[in-house]
Amino acid sequence: MGRDEGEDGADRPTVTLSPSAEFPALRPEELAVLREVGQRWSAAIRDRPADWDELPLDPSLDRYRHPPTPSRFGRLARIEMFKSDEPDQLLATETANLPQSGAGRVLARLRRGILGPPLASTAVLQERMRKLVALPVLSSDLLSSVAYGPEALLAVLVLAGSGALNLALPLAGAVVLLMIVVGTSYRQTVRAYPHGAGSYLVASDSLGPRFGLAAAAGLILDYVLTVSVSVAAGISAITSALPGLTRFTVPLGLLAIAVLLAGNLRGVRVAGNLFAAPTYVFIVAAVLLLVVGFTQAGMRGFERLPTPPVTAVEGLTVLVILRAFASGATSMTGIEAVSNAVPVFKPVEWRNARTTLTWMVSILVVLFAGLSLLIHLSGVVPHPNQTLISQVARQTFRTGPWYGFIQAATAMILLLAANTAYQDFPRLLFFVARDDYAPRRFLHMGDRLAFSNGIIALSVAAAIIFLAFGGATQKLIPLYAVGVFLAFTLSQAGMVVHWRRHRGRHWHRRAALNGFGSALCAIVLVTAAVTKFGEGAWVVVLAIPLLVLLALRIRRHYDRMHHALALRPPSVPAGGPGQPAEGGGPRDRAVGGDDQESEQSPQDVRHLVVVPVARLNLAALRALAYAASLGPPVFAVHLSPEQEEADRFREAWQTWGDHLRLETIITPYRAITAPLVQYLDSLHKLRPDVLLTVVVPELMVKRPWHRLLHTPIDQRLRRALRGLPGVVIASVPVHLPE
Amino acid sequence: MGRDEGEDGADRPTVTLSPSAEFPALRPEELAVLREVGQRWSAAIRDRPADWDELPLDPSLDRYRHPPTPSRFGRLARIEMFKSDEPDQLLATETANLPQSGAGRVLARLRRGILGPPLASTAVLQERMRKLVALPVLSSDLLSSVAYGPEALLAVLVLAGSGALNLALPLAGAVVLLMIVVGTSYRQTVRAYPHGAGSYLVASDSLGPRFGLAAAAGLILDYVLTVSVSVAAGISAITSALPGLTRFTVPLGLLAIAVLLAGNLRGVRVAGNLFAAPTYVFIVAAVLLLVVGFTQAGMRGFERLPTPPVTAVEGLTVLVILRAFASGATSMTGIEAVSNAVPVFKPVEWRNARTTLTWMVSILVVLFAGLSLLIHLSGVVPHPNQTLISQVARQTFRTGPWYGFIQAATAMILLLAANTAYQDFPRLLFFVARDDYAPRRFLHMGDRLAFSNGIIALSVAAAIIFLAFGGATQKLIPLYAVGVFLAFTLSQAGMVVHWRRHRGRHWHRRAALNGFGSALCAIVLVTAAVTKFGEGAWVVVLAIPLLVLLALRIRRHYDRMHHALALRPPSVPAGGPGQPAEGGGPRDRAVGGDDQESEQSPQDVRHLVVVPVARLNLAALRALAYAASLGPPVFAVHLSPEQEEADRFREAWQTWGDHLRLETIITPYRAITAPLVQYLDSLHKLRPDVLLTVVVPELMVKRPWHRLLHTPIDQRLRRALRGLPGVVIASVPVHLPE
């Protein structure tokens, strides 16, 4: 967490989402070593001839700065692929990003047609959202939860018979209280952590990386499930209105995920515009339903309509009540979206984010409380083929255009709610990857400034889960609560530690608020994990520690990599190489370092070039000429299946002029790769300080199927040499005509 | 066919099946060019320092000739991987063929346990067969055909009702005549072409390569079908005896193919021993059946038993008769096996082969004629769940041990008949590949001296066909006749041309015999193709020209490759490179040749080394040190997503000492590979005579899953640079700890 142990960070620069996160700056001690290494280089460079670094061409592509000349078609001007403003610096234009091959170009253009043209890195700041755009984009998950949250609560209660439904209102009240506490708690988090990353950052910062990773793991599962659950609930809003579509549930869901994938790969701004309208439409639709519903209820004196009798299948135990509460609490999923996404707001980010969060929670409380009350007054109960909102809407408006509007708005926001996860999941992975706990490829911003790898990973995972559960919302709910409430709990416990550590103004009051939120969330977490364990929560309970373990293993690997790749001060030249050279000749330069593969300056490198030759044809002679013209000593090696063939080859070698030392290896078992690798290994063991460069010709064919006609010796060698230190493979391409 | 246009070849050396076919000798004109190229090298080498070719180590692995020293375990001696008898020559021992990695070694040992230890190339002569071993190995296909041939004949006749069965004996007589003619014809072929390859070689040699390829294509399909049909018929011999196994037909067949695959990968000698006994057992069983059957028939005065009445579904047309004849002629499949396999006989090969062929045809005629007659006398008709032989055997011996013996022997030889195809298919592919009409990998002898690639290809193809037809023998028969009779026809037409061309003793008589055979086979071929077209023969009729076309395309590719790789006389040094250099500096050496990638001697090569650097860590510094120590001029290029990152990198570069020219490319779209490739392409276009060497560090991880944590820039570069001429990629390995 070294890079983020900031103070109250309101004035830290917002560099967190920059594409150069893939290229972190060097630390001062690294720069010091670099300077020291460079001084050793000076010694190596000093002995060079004066013209040594005169290049045979100008790498600034001088020619490209001339005015474009007419092409052979007479009219088309040359497309500039590189521009140059400063000396020694080029700017790659969009054209330079196109692949070389014809098929690749067609694919690239098709992709652009769907995803839009690439965006330059400098556009990253413009891709920010106003509050009125951020509100719908970030709140679709949270607000859409009311479409399945109250139903999930009632679906558990009804197991204890229709009498138990009287507990629905008190339980809904408890959920509302939880919402307000957690929402207020997150307001404090947004202010304290203006770079976003929410639970992961807060928990890591205050409680340590393991807790942070646990929160991240919870959220990662939560985001995946958000997509699955929202899509499932959205499809069931559609099938409630149009029962004929029920059998297309799964393909419709997958289609929805595909559309979300494409939309999000286009990048953050377009996604915002695309998803702003439906959220507002839903809010309007829900408010309309509440107003008309309560008006009708008021006209009958707020009298509750009769409930159809339901037979109890379980007793009304505390367990059932707790399970109902935990299920209802899934209405809160998505409340953390703003705290993760602070940097996408326009400056001043934290202030805009906090305001948006307040709006969101207020709307949520109104909708959740209102709907719960209306459902209670309507006397409807959960039904397998019809959602509760659909039942209430049918009761309020009859089946007609208004009913259709309600259902369409619900389906739309649910299908798009998943979009919040598409905003947050890649961003969370970015932060986790920046701390080396996830593969570094999640740091890479796509050419539309979206984290394409994260977006694709989310889509694949969500589609798999959706398929596995056949798109049934209520089966997915038990998995849902555990991950998200783990993240809430840890995030708010972290805030308590944060306040205690910084002891700013009113820190007692703030810590108390966060502590209360944390405690409430912990209760929900334990309730959900225990009461829903058998129904699927065990998957999440198991997956979270596994994900944390995986993250720790990834971090360990990267740590070792950083250690292995760290610049080391050049050691004092030793007396000689680790194993004394036999017949080494006059090239006895000192080598630095005593371990292998540590050469950091030219005088440390001791070369020997090996050219395996099968036949004396043009390809072999090119490889030999290449090797011999490099400079270091060269010898050739020929592998032969039989003595006669070896003699014949040696004769041809003599005819050629025997210009290089030739070593012949008879391989009576006719294998080529294995003996060559063993031979190179033996050479390496003989003199571990000598860096072997193996020069192999590589036949390049025009058509893919032609590859089947050749044995790619260089590829097989490369794979076989994977474990061998100190062997460089240089492949000299020989392009074959078609 | 250039290499095989021999005379009456009895005294040509038997080099055809040598493992060095992969390394053909250079032709005199190639040697002349080689000498000329070598003289240009002399000029290049002359200017070198005196110690230039002194190597820092002894490539003869001098150290390995010392007596083995105790290892750190105190007792184990070092395993010698290379032995050396002559200077500059090493002999790879068996150990040198083992892979380096632990998992690879375990796999290799497991493979050896199943397939046996590798055999040295010098063992190729010992892997020859005596006549008494060759007879069963090569004749199992031919002799086993009598198990389904007579049945295939009757199965067609019976369509015209039981009355048509009277035609069975005359038709069988016609088939016997055909057998004798074709057998005698092949005797002449074996003598004339002692190197084997039968139809392919004969037809290519006399009629031209296209006819040869048509014959080869016919045989290739024939061999694949031999495996499928024999396995299918073998399994139905088993299920005739044990009806309970009928539902396991497909898995049993696949198991049989797997056993054949493993057995044949072990190599030719073991396969011979393994498959000798069952053929003899089958001959004994068949003769026993004939003797007892005819004795019983004789006791009742050779009276024909009553035939169960069968309703005619077709009229007795000429078409039905011809179709029955063509189906019965499948009893001859396998007659060409000896002529293809002459070289596996002990010397004198052709004489032993001819004798064996005579034996085989004699046994075939006795068994086919005898069984046809016995079936006729027994009055049995084809039955879907019981083979004819099974019915006759049940009638003769009652169901009991003798019946079981007959069925077991039949099943055994049928299951093993496929082995003939395993002998011939890879050998045929070897000859086709030696003429560049098939992928060169079919030239490669495995470490058991068997052509592993051909054996595996055959097994896969046969298994697919077996699966596609559900293991039903009679459905496969229509596909069978076309390919094999095409090969017979072409082979014997070729012999006619051969005799006419050479006009030796009795050439008229010999040509007449082969001509007669050819004509008969052509009639069968046309009959089979026309009458069975709708039943599946169309697949073969279509596949043969496609295979020929494919072979011609492969040949064209290899021809172009040979032309492209042929040694060219070095052209007179031109005035300068194709495009004049701008600011090329004092290194204006002349370049030879005016096309790209034609450098054949060191002075033709003009180097420029490019090192792409992402971060200044140990890996980058190693790549820079490697590049700078090689000799040619070097510059570095850094791709940056943002201006600030580029400035930061340049500062670090200054800190290091700015020892090399640095070019920065800003890629605002964050792609790395595409702009780099475009940049290299631009450099190449600027000076096509300069060979660019791109030095990239390659991170090597210990565990496979760690690869997911890294972006393999060098692999992506290599793939992207596939189309670019004049760019060498050298990857400097950096091994990461676990």
Please specify the SSE layout and strand pairing:
The structure is a homodimer of 738-residue chains.
Chain A: H1 28-46, E1 82-83, E2 89-92, H2 102-115, H3 131-144, H4 149-157, H5 168-192, H6 198-207, H7 209-241, H8 249-265, H9 268-299, H10 318-328, H11 337-340, H12 349-378, H13 388-397, H14 401-434, H15 452-468, H16 473-502, H17 507-531, H18 537-565, E3 606-612, H19 618-630, E4 634-640, H20 643-656, E5 661-666, H21 673-686, E6 690-700, H22 713-720, E7 727-735
Parallel strand pairs in A: 3-4, 3-6, 4-5, 6-7
Antiparallel strand pairs in A: 1-2
Helix pairs in contact in A: 3-9, 3-12, 3-14, 4-10, 5-10, 5-12, 5-17, 6-7, 6-16, 7-8, 7-14, 7-15, 7-16, 7-18, 8-14, 8-15, 9-12, 9-13, 9-14, 10-17, 12-13, 13-14, 14-15, 16-17, 16-18, 21-22
What does the model show?
The structure is a homodimer of 738-residue chains. Chain A contains 22 helices and 7 strands. Chain A has helices at 28-46, 102-115, 131-144, 149-157, 168-192, 198-207, 209-241, 249-265, 268-299, 318-328, 337-340, 349-378, 388-397, 401-434, 452-468, 473-502, 507-531, 537-565, 618-630, 643-656, 673-686, 713-720; strands at 82-83, 89-92, 606-612, 634-640, 661-666, 690-700, 727-735. In chain A, the strands form 2 sheets. The first copy, chain A, has a 5-stranded parallel sheet. In chain A, strand 1 (82-83) and strand 2 (89-92) form a beta hairpin. In chain A, helix 4 (149-157) runs antiparallel to helix 10 (318-328). Chain A is elongated, with a radius of gyration of 33 Å. At the A-B interface, helix 1, strand 2, helix 18, strand 3 and helix 19 of A face helix 1, strand 2, helix 18, strand 3 and helix 19 of B. Strand 5 (661-666) of chain A pairs parallel with strand 2 of chain B, so a sheet runs across the interface.
